[in-house]
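Worked example

This section walks through a single chain of length 268. The input is the sequence exactly as stored; nothing has been trimmed or padded.
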Amino acid sequence: MWQEKLRIHKNNAIADLYPFAKLWILALYSVCSMILGTVKVDGYPVYMMGAFIVVPIIVLATGIWNKFITVFKKIVFLCVFIVVVQALLVKGNEIVWSMSVFGLFDLTVYKIGLQTGLNLMFTIFNIGGIFAWFFQCTENKELICACEKKGMSPKAAYVLLSTLQMITVLQQNSKVIMNAQQARGVETQGNLLVRTKAFIPSMIPLILGSISNTEERVLTLESKGFSVQCQKTHIFDVTPSGNEKKAIIVAIIITTLVIVWRVLMWVL
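Given that input, the structure is written out below as tokens.
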């Protein structure tokens, strides 16, 4: 019986790659980043810093710069905090920078702390950046559909899809609740204390709403015959674009060159 299936068509060749091909790129880039992180110049992860340039290049080539920046700004905030904490708290013999604050105490940045902080920062930048690229150019249903076509059970696929969508759903529900609280006259804007007071009461309806939504999802799945032991049909499909082999080969060649370079540095 002929069945029409929907497919997402993307104008960008990289974004239109099959999800598993993009996973190959993600994994191989992560391997290259970790290998480059083993080489230090005067204790600093210079090569790992250079590797990070690849992430914005891929993002620009994929055409998802605005979406990527929205997510990556949160990673930058976390990494800057890590560098500051490491640089100030990890003490060593060599001081990079020092300043007296109103004559009360000194802020001292030690070299070993700065090196440790930068290493952690660019490790998170590289791994977190490439993951952000993957999930911004790959819809969750594309990845789940590809997993099911590889043999993943529908139940496991649904659990994975629900997990990936959980944060987004909770954020949307939280915004609805906060808007409802604001409409009732509850102050939700202001300093951290005011926001905390408004956020804590919203947790109860958020949790209860999530439980209620779970029951509704179960009933919806059962009405569609989710638990019936038969061949499943899908209205959505994902197919290779034809450029997957080229992309994977390029990624493998680059990874091989990085490995050879590292081995030669170790031997010589």
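What to look for: Strands lie at 95-101, 105-110.
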